[in-house]
Amino acid sequence: MAKNTGEGHRNGAVTARTQFERPDGHWQKRDERTGQLMEVKQSEGPFKGVAKEPDGRDTSKSPEE
Length: 65
What we know:
Strand content: 35-45%
Region (Disordered): 1-65
Distance between the termini: 8 Å
Number of helices: 0
């Protein structure tokens, strides 16, 4: 499980989530299990601790923990 450190980074990866950069430059998360699109990040840069697509860290619909 990912945990915030309060120091500008996260320890561990967020499981069952991936992110991709949209054509408008914002990053959006996707639930790996359902394929459902989730929130869009309005500030600059990607989400912390979320695998980028394609990445290979979370595969086969990422089993629940």
